[in-house]
Amino acid sequence: MSTDSKADVKESEILAAGYQVSHSKSPVFYDTYERKDELQHQTHYCPGCGHGIAHKLIAEALADLGLQDKTIFVSPVGCSVFAYYYFDVGNVQLAHGRAPAGATGIKRARPDKIVISYQGDGDLAAIGTAEIIHAANRGEKITVFFLNNAIYGMTGGQMAPTTLVGQKSTTSPWGRRPVNEGFPLHMAELISTLEAPVYVERVALSDNKNIMKARKAVRRALEIQRDGIGFSFVEILSPCPTIWAKDPVEARKWVAEKMIPVFPLNVFRDRKHEPVENAVIPIRPIPEVLEISSTQGGTAALVLPGEPSSPKHTHHFQEFAIKIAGFGGQGVLLLGQLLTEMGMREGLEVSWLPSYGPEMRSGSAHCHVCLSKERIGSPLISHPDVLVAMNELSLRKFAPQVAPGGLILYNQARLPQDFQLPQARVICIPASEMADKLGSTKATNIILMGALLEETECLLAATAEEVLQTKIKKVEMMEINRKALAAGREFIDHYVRVGAVSQPDGFAY
Amino acid sequence: MRQLCKGNVAVVKGAILAGCQAYYGYPITPASEIAEAAALLLPQVSGTFLQAESEVAAINMVYGAAAAGARVMTASSGPGLSLMQEGISYLAGSELPCVIVDVVRGGPGLGNIAPEQSDYFAMVKGGGHGCYRNLVLAPASVQEMADLTVLAFELADKYRNPAIVLADGFIGQMMEPIELEYHEVRLPERPWAVQGTPETRKNLISSIYLETDALEEHVRKLEAKYIRASQIEARHETLQTEDAEVLLVGYGITSRVLRSAVEMARREGLKAGLFRPITLWPFPAKALVEAANKVNRVLVVELSNGQMVEDVRLALNGKVPVEFYGRTGGNVPSVEEVHSQLMQHVMALI
Q1: CATH code at position B256
Q2: What pLDDT score does B19 carry?
Q3: Which of A312, A422, B269, B338 is the most exposed place for a label (fewest CB within 10 A)?
Q4: Do A303 and B17 touch (CB under 8 A)?
């Protein structure tokens, strides 16, 4: 494909084609720029503007590399917002500063396509700083062309993050003062401090020699993407005659004399990466990943398949509500989940509602478990049939809520001295001590579960074993839990059923 | 077969069943398990998961992926959704389909992480700039977190518009049994998408229309789409409304409390009924008018200081007195609390 494919067209044909832009035009440019009826022969860029040159360099490169059909061009907000009027490629227009994020979404969806993010200095280096840094840091396999003209063009000459010290703008009317606005941002240097980018260069549209260097840089950047090597970034110092209030020739001179000393031209990065090791993610069939098939064992700890395996149990309640409370780390939430899972396996409607908080450890935690024969309304329990209080704080806080005639299982040998008894039965059970003796404090919650099942008969102990089996992979830990379950049940049998029954005035035994 | 599942995890399972190909998001309580489940599960079915640098970036990654023709989603909670509003406006303006899940927490500002329903205005009425609508679905169970996510993907594609699943901290955090069925998904053709192919080379995804008439035409086109959706997409559920004298109205987790309150009232001989909007936009106004036809009081309960109640009043247009009861700060009213409110309003009638 030649960039001058239509250069030989006769003048009469040009006239016959009306406003067709056919002289020395890259085929990657549209034939007409459909902006306004009367302006189809010209671009909306000002005379001497750098965008025209940069567009041409990119269009030529795309044509020469044969990439037109597979290119997706992301337009930013700024003067180049209308890039899609010129580039005859797939076009996506994005919000101010977000082009690298959008380009990320496009490239990840279409990894074999060429994705170009074309941005100005306000877009890339002010409002979109986070997006460009992170896209570069991830090594997105996209190409970013950064047009730096040290000013906001489209909005009419406000200060840019790259405005030079002392340079006047409508929002720095005394010239940029570092004491107020800081110093110009050096994006190419900034990006070349990152690990991932493979190609970072700064070029300038200051004279023909530098434009030829820019032409080379544009091609190199696109080749790197074509070959799937990594992130490429070209900063292009660009004249803005209109806002700078200079003629095109003076503006070019200003780039050379004022901008280049501040933004030195350089290849900051041009390298290939050593291969880095990445964990390999297994690809599995969807039903297996979603645990839909009954043959699959659970992998995610909290999401297990459950078949109502013990439907024989006829439950003595319509609805049974359990509240479990204690410190974070005591297995409060897990105990609730186990009971919920058991209820589901026994064919009940169930819900589990946790307290959730920013405190990861030693904060308080509680959860609500509803077991019901019918569809569950509110999963939030106001008056539990059973409270499992794993510490004193929980006992004091939640005991008054227990339904009249309900049950409290308290994880201590004795109630606190000054404790005012609610209208509920209390069983004190030194579960933590018992768990220690079994070899793991972690089994405290399972001892309490054993006691709960034995005392209330809300669910079957056999179902408990079945659920524990699916959750606990370590043989030793399963053995401890099995013992804990039995210990909790035996405690009720020996100390509660035989001998003193829990009394309204206090002690269980 | 039933499996016990957390609401937030069910969202991702539903998304995968719907053929979701990419997830871009940023962690926030109480929605983080959605990102975590997506990170674990999506790559195993050849999908993309990426934790973005911010919600602002995440929603624009969604925009890019949708522009390129992918089935894509994100999720967050109130503060994150505030940051995404710009992007949502662009998505609607550019007519890009995507699914956004909001697991609402307490606000304003940093607020807290407990459940509220205070993002109703932000999600249902717009929130971003310009004339646009979101399709908004309100799950009230873990099963619906999966089912309505699937529906959200379908509606998003049908209308080329963002669809929002508006949940709350409790629905996101709670676990219930769910049943999922796998069917092979045939994703819709997206000839409008920019795919980097010769056929789609002329395509442009954009929301800019500088000419006043061109923008007005575009806004009218969007509006026609919204009118079409409002005529056929409203969904709701009723409980015991046939002979109801008082009607409770609530969505999401609140509707669960109201369900119990209806039962409690009925046990005491008060003929109460429940109307639960499943779609918040379009709002099931017609169905509500029918359900409220014979009642003498309506009580709207929300975890906010009164947002959906405005749509209820608009729908009923003064035909029935509409009372409101709201809790905020992350407090979810108990059944007894709602019951006593209900009795107060009923007593006032006598």
Answers
A1: 3.40.50.920
A2: 98
A3: B269
A4: no
